[in-house]
Every structure is written in C-alpha cells, then in structure tokens.
Amino acid sequence: MTVEVRPASKFEDVRALLGPKSPQANVCWCLSYRIPSKLNRELRGPARGEYVAGLLRSGDPLGVLAYEDGEPVGWAAVAPRADTSFARNRKIPHVDDLPVWSLWCIRVRPGHRGKGLSHALIAGAVAYARAQGAPAVEAYPLDSGDARVDLTMAYPGLRKNFERAGFTHAADTTSVLSGHPRVLMRLDLR
Question: 180: burial class by Cβ within 10 Å (0-12, 13-18, 19+)?
C-alpha cells in the first residue's frame, strides 16, 4: 500500500470523499464549519457541490486528500480558523490571538479504515498548514477515552490520535458531540 497525502485540488477527488451518492442529497460536503450557518442552510442538493467546486477554483485552502495507490481514500479539512465558524464559536474557546489553523474533519472511506490513514491525514494537514505559514494548528476532537464512537460522529477525530501526532491539550470546551466532550488540542509550528 502506497499512501500519499496532498492538498485537495481536484473536484472529482473531493467529491469521491465528501459528495453524496445521489446529487440531490443534502450532505455536509464539509461546509458546515466553513461557511456562515445561514448560507449552510440555504445551499441545497447540487448547490453544495457547486459551492465546493467554486472554492477549489478560487484556490482557498480546503484540506488534504489521502491517496492509496492513486485512489482518493481520505479527507482532512484544514484552513485558517479566521475563515471558519470556529472564529465565532462560543463553545470552543480561543487560547490566544495567534492566527492558528483549524483541523476539524477527518474522513476515511469504508474499506480503507484501520490502516492508519487518519494518522497520515493529520500529518498531511499539519504539513499543508505549515507550508502555508500557519504558526499552529488546532483540532477539536472527541475525548472519548476507551468508549466506542459512532463512526458517523467521529469526524472531528479522537483525542488519542492527535496526541500521537504531537498535539497537546490546550483547553476544555463546552462542545459535546454524540455524547462525548470535545477538547481543544494544539500543535505549535513555530
């Protein structure tokens, strides 16, 4: 197995990870933390994918994709926190005024899980943020301990995976997802 993580730039590859089976479906497309909530509610069906295609054309940082033997198999969303709803989120605190980047979604396609791709995606997202000049990367994973987590709701990642990647606990949050508290983890890149 050869895994390569690189910036998301091809719409078809992003669609393979984030798009719905039916073009009319209202799936996230990893937009819910990227755009204002009003716009997120207004974008329906194919308009969501079209919006993502526009973001890719504009060159805005969206995230990274993991490729296994050339096939897109994983996704991690990473962008400047100031460009996300985390900039205004009342449940996830600001540690300081550093212009950090946020890493908020990790997704591995069924059939490719259990191979360490989430670790490769975290490392790839950090490398991408570093290359863009990020002074630090924050993540807001679930602090689930040894409890099982529904894979659908595990998209923010798990605390232990971020600890393995060198992130440290920076703050508690008041955010809870699927019954598990989320914590703010940070990796200083300076």
Answer: buried
Q: In 3-state terms, what secondary structure has residue 74?
A: strand
Structure-token pair, residue 167: 């992130």
Q: How far is CA 142 from CA 6, 24, 98, 180, in A?
A: 25, 31, 23, 6
Beta strands, E only, the chain: 3-7, 63-68, 71-80, 101-108, 136-139, 168-177, 180-188
36-78 pLDDT tens trace: 999 999 999 999 999 999 999 998 879 999 999 999 999 999 9
The angle subtended at Cα 95 by Cα 93 and Cα 98, nearest 5°, is: 125
Global pTM? 0.95
| Closest to 74 measured CA to CA, from 158, 148, 3 | 3
Cβ 186 vs Cβ 136: under 8 Å: yes
